[in-house]
Amino acid sequence: MCGRYASTKDPALLAAEFDAVDGTGDEAPGPDYNIAPTKHVLAVVERKPAEDADEVERSLRVMRWGLVPHWAKDLSGAAKMINARAETVLTKPAYKQSAIKRRCILPAEGWYEWQPGEGRKQPYFMTLGDGASLAMAGIWSVWWKDDVPTVTCAVLTTDAIGAMTEVHHRMPLLLPRDRWSAWLDPASADPSELLVPDPSIVEALELRPVSTAVNSVKNNNPSLLDRVSLTEAEKPAPTLSELS
């Protein structure tokens, strides 16, 4: 799963990194080192800028994390729909139409996961560590009330592969740059070939142990991303320690 992540770059920098136009205006959230469900996040989409436009435009937009289908009665279920399983996203009624017509990329410096062990769980921050953003595959939807739209999104997840299996059994679907265009293409209604993880990205990840301060959503500062040393009592997996 992916229940917390970090996205701290300025929208203009993210737009440039993803070859997009910054369409966030004054709605962009500030740097967030501990993004939790239902917060507003940045997403990359491709749509026609106007109904009579001939070509699509890639842009950076603001969405609410936790997908709400257009037919939902209210927003109350959003926190339970922050993730969509890649294996079933094309068949589940709540996600199917979004997976076919409304796909997005959710940029992140990295995401957090908690490794089970004796006593407390140890949080890890998964990141490329070289300043480049991760491109998490996502889907989005629009929910209306009183003619006011709320744009919501979910992160796609897959079975963990490689070293990630030492931390958790699920992980976000990470898109390499050469898959961005195909994933975002609104004219493509069948993304099934893109719903498998790319081993090269996982191999490049740094699996960084971080402070348990991230456990509380009230904590939100750069120190959450800092590597911490594990004591022998806390060290849950020597093999992971060697990898990270």
TrEMBL record:
Report the EC code(s) recorded for this entry: 3.4.-.-
Record lineage = Bacteria, Bacillati, Actinomycetota, Actinomycetes, Pseudonocardiales
Q: Which species is this UniProt entry from?
A: Lentzea xinjiangensis
UniProt similarity note: Belongs to the SOS response-associated peptidase family.
Protein name stated in the entry: Abasic site processing protein
Q: Which UniProt keywords apply?
A: Covalent protein-DNA linkage, DNA damage, DNA-binding, Hydrolase, Lyase, Protease
Which Pfam families is this protein grouped with? Answer: SRAP
Entry GO MF terms = lyase activity; peptidase activity; single-stranded DNA binding
Q: Which residues form a coiled coil?
A: none
Q: Its GO biological process terms?
A: protein-DNA covalent cross-linking repair; proteolysis
Source organism superkingdom: Bacteria
